[in-house]
Amino acid sequence: MNEIISSSQNDKIKYLNKLYRSRTRRKEGVFVLEGKRLIEAASAGGADFERVFLSPAFFKADKNKDLIDKLQNRVSLDLVSEELLKETAATVNPQGIIAIVKEPNYSSEKFFKTADKILLLDRIQDPGNMGTMIRTAAAAGFEAVIALKGSVDIYNQKVIRASMGGIFAIPIWQKVSKNEFKKDLKDRAADFELLAADIKAEKYHFEHQYQQKLILMIGNEANGLAEDLLNIADMKVKIPLKGEMESLNAAIAAAVISFEILAQQLK
Amino acid sequence: MNEIISSSQNDKIKYLNKLYRSRTRRKEGVFVLEGKRLIEAASAGGADFERVFLSPAFFKADKNKDLIDKLQNRVSLDLVSEELLKETAATVNPQGIIAIVKEPNYSSEKFFKTADKILLLDRIQDPGNMGTMIRTAAAAGFEAVIALKGSVDIYNQKVIRASMGGIFAIPIWQKVSKNEFKKDLKDRAADFELLAADIKAEKYHFEHQYQQKLILMIGNEANGLAEDLLNIADMKVKIPLKGEMESLNAAIAAAVISFEILAQQLK
Which terminus of chain B has a lower count of CB atoms within 10 Å, N or C? Predict the structure, then answer.
């Protein structure tokens, strides 16, 4: 290990700083993780680390030895002063560790072969919703997520944090065009049941018997699914609404349907 | 209607400004609403308005006539310049209207008599979660919410916005002490089934047959329900978790159980 970096003019720190801008992040094909918990989740999920920055205190602490041992086998570690680490991070307290991780690449071929239950997200805007949806999908036994173009970047810091490690638990294929998805659906996923959450559906979500292989489509917070996606769905389901409420939060709607599907499979 | 207020030194505007501080808000027993949609929801829910500020453009617009007619019968309206209204508001765009509403008062006696399904929230911290829980509870047919002391103020601007009008759809009794709740439970709600969402429960949420009259208890985001509340529960239920995820977001957990209860009643 080299000396402790303490200057914001250090080239590695300048590079790290740039990655907080979403355009640079995307261009470089990497994303930033802050804090022990997320970096542990990334390590457990087999993430491809590019670089890890940590404070001398974090490096020395006994409780971090396991994680550091695992990381040292895979990536070069850089010591950074506590102050500079805090100054650089997006969170108030990065807890002594920041990592740069390479964005995983998914091919659609592999994607539909390895997953039985897939969540498709159409133009989800709110980072908190996106992160919660990923967390919930993983918890409900979904094995993959497809985020269509027009959805918020899943490597946005708020999405990562709200996902509570979920982005490392299941593969997520993002920035997929609708045409690409439709073509794949025909070529590779013809045996999947295509489900749409639709406030105007006739059936309640608990009245339908779900197939083993399925794709659940959830649409934009304000406008729901795009018309052409609704049109190709094999089945549309709605959630009953009481108390004169007009709608549910999109992440809540996704969760209610996802866990009904899981419950049917466990019953 | 008097002239248009355009100075931030106007006494009514100074009072309004102070209400954005939560201590003053609580002391005065009122809260602030911004935007047409929320104020319509408040009006429909029978809210007790103290004062309404609106821009000359909002006042003149044909599409706002219905709302203004309703408000004029109940409260004094003040015209405020567009600029001053924007400067005062917490949202980027208050859409021409801000209202001060009196906090409703609930007696526990009435509370348990008029509701069959009640959601109890124990130390919910995140305003977005709190608002979403209220919105979801109303949508799932819950008829009341009790927020125990230590939960975020339901009249916090972020809670109000996330609730999407839900805070006007059902009565919410907040800042209730645990002892007060336990006493009421004995004295007034002995015939309610007391349910706890508990990650360590033995039964899955879909394995239990819920009673008609029930109180569903949901705990703090990080730590769940307090031990003593778990101990008095008639039944504990958990949600199955896959993908090595350790937990769900608290609002998601509340939604999944609430809609299972509703589904059982509709089946």
Answer: C
